[in-house]
Amino acid sequence: MAPFQCNHDGSCSSVMLCCTDTEMTLTRKDIDRIEVEGYSREDFLQRTEDGFCELRNVDGLCYFYDPSNQTCRIYETRPDGCRFYPIVYDMKKRKCVVDADCPSRSTISRDEIRKVCHKVRSLVETLVREARNGESPC
């Protein structure tokens, strides 16, 4: 389960902004978990110029976002980055921060950030290692 439960306080209006024009990067494990649900990586992935795999956007929304009922079709098996969002790792500062674009960012405590930062950092290290070593599944 996610370390942070979005309060959906209305800041995002009818569309969850984290699902709009997403640049969510996926690990091999994320992709394997999604494929078990019956989705084909050719449909939901795109390769970035720097060798990472990202979720594809369709009409400006994450491939898995269902605008008709405003839900994620793979919520239970969503990528780890989605599970931790809006807590992200700032590589320049070398620390976990809350994404400034999240309208609910003020609801996240420093304690919540501290509790998951080691997991977020590990996720970023995995993503970088997979891209650097040519292990990216795209």
Secondary structure blueprint with pairings:
Blueprint (H helix, E strand, L loop, with lengths): L24 E2 L1 H9 L4 H4 E3 L5 E3 L1 E2 L2 E2 L2 E2 L4 E2 L7 H5 L2 E4 L4 E4 L11 H23 L6
Antiparallel strand pairs: 1-3, 2-3, 4-5, 6-7, 8-9
| Proportion in helices | 25-40%
Largest sheet features: 3 strands, antiparallel
Rg is 15 Å
Class from helix and strand fractions: alpha+beta
Number of beta-strand segments: 9
Strand content: 15-25%
Q: Which H/E pattern describes the elements?
A: EHHEEEEEEHEEH
Shape annotation: globular
Can you tell me the residue ranges where pLDDT is under 50 for at least 5 consecutive residues?
Answer: none
Average predicted local confidence, pLDDT = 86
Structural domain tally: 1
N-C termini distance: 26 Å
- With strands numbered from the N-terminus, the spatial order across the biggest sheet is 1-3-2
What's the total helix number?
4
